[in-house]
Amino acid sequence: MHQLLSLMHSSSHCVFLSGAGISTLSGIPDFRGSKGIYKQFDADKIFDIHYFRKDPAYFYTHGREFIYNLEEKEPNIIHKMLAKLEEEGMMRSIITQNIDMLHQKAGSRRVIEIHGSPAQHTCLHCGKKFPYELISPIVHGPQVVPKCDGCGGLVKPDIIFFGEMLDQNALSQAISESSKADLMVVVGSSLVVHPAASLPLNTVKHGGRLIIVNNMPTPLDEYAYLIYPDLEAVFRYLEKEIQ
């Protein structure tokens, strides 16, 4: 692990890419793991925009178990150390596939959320915005599906569902950061969901090094300079070395 630390110290533009695997230590299930969300719910329904419009109760009912309880979840050692690395100037930005808002809760400031966030919700009819804090109690109440108090339209979290366009501003930032990075460290991502999965290749193509920390093999392992299978062990080491 000293090789990882040495590369981070010598890097001038280190970027992290985080996936759902980093939040399992906070009690949030990942998506494709052995106990992942897609083992519990129908992946073709839970984040599909067309199904959401047809039956929003499916998303909101199941979302109570892994989205609308996020106020109870706390950042773990990984989130906290990533915030520390940014504070120490050892990392420029975090590109995240996660929608749990724990990077911000831990204190990270330069977070690019390429799959959006439930921090805000939007009425699909009139565009009115609603904060997470207002929507969560409704989802847990008898109504379950939040409706706009202005026009009565269906309210949806600002999470990018399958069938929707990605936020072009966030995607542009992610492409720019991954292209400028002389070191990209992937943490807790299986690297199978695009376009996030292709971002590390931008780093490699521009001469940067790729490091992958994940408990399962990824399609980009052959491009990695270093691979570590144990997230917690790596971040315990970093915690010990970076005071």
If you had to describe this structure to a student in words, what would you say it looks like?
- The protein is an alpha/beta fold and 243 residues long.
- Helix content is 35%, strand content 17%.
What is the mean pLDDT?
94
How many runs of DSSP E, i.e. beta strands? 9
* Count of DSSP-assigned helices: 11
Strand content: 15-25%
Report helical residue fraction. 25-40%
From the alpha-carbon coordinates, what is the Rg to the nearest angstrom? 18 Å
What fold name goes in the CATH topology slot of the largest domain?
Rossmann fold
What is the level-2 CATH architecture name of the largest domain?
A: 3-Layer(aba) Sandwich
Number of spatially distinct domains = 2
SSE-based structural type: alpha/beta
Order of helices and strands: HEHHHHHEHEEEHEHEHEEH
- CATH superfamily caption of the largest domain: TPP-binding domain
The main pleated sheet reads as: 6 strands, parallel
Strand order of the largest sheet: 3-2-1-7-8-9
